[in-house]
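Lecture 7 notes: from sequence to structure.

We start with a single chain of 221 residues. Read the sequence below before looking at the structure.
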Amino acid sequence: IVNQILCCLTFRPDWAMATIELAHKYAHNFPCAVVGVDIAAGEDHFNVERLPESHHAHREAFKVAQELGLNVTLHAGEVDLGEHVELAVRDYGATRIGHGYQASRSPDIMQRMVDAKVHFEICPTSSYEAGGWTGEAAEALDWSKHPLRAVIAAGARFSINSDDPSVFRTTLREEVDIVTQKIGIPKAFVRSWTLDAIEAAFAPEHERERVKNIVLKYYGG
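Now the structure, written as tokens:
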């Protein structure tokens, strides 16, 4: 399955609505369709006082995205406030969150995200290299204290991802090894987070079901 997500950029509010319109135009252009939209390159668009033009442009664009029925995933709570995760879900219509590590500091926010069945896209190497994982444990590279543990403890849905392999020089296999060998998450979780990823995928139901059956067959049900 090779589809695309079009990404708005915080520092280009003038591109926001055009990006949504382009995503809508090619939403059914399978087998290489645009299946969702995102906002990246910082989180200042959440803050109306810090970047009012970006805030208003992206809020309006994602209001239209929701009206058009586009799938939404947003970078939120990566290196900025955990509250941005809740804003992404409540105000922008996100069902998936890119990173979201800062939200793990707030049990209340995490519980609301669990209740809303929000999916967290966890990227271990990226979290360290890009500064999403901070604090003494990060400085000491003590993976056993990575915020993924708090995400799991909260009962949130998540998957393991490579983010940008060419930038971080990693692969999905290497990310899984970090999770199981360094963070110390049992390998049994590979099955559950793979099924979580399939459920959260921006793909037609028949495609999700087809891939799910392949995974279940591999694991023996």
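The CA atoms of residues 14 and 172 lie 34 Å apart. Keep this in mind for problem set 3.
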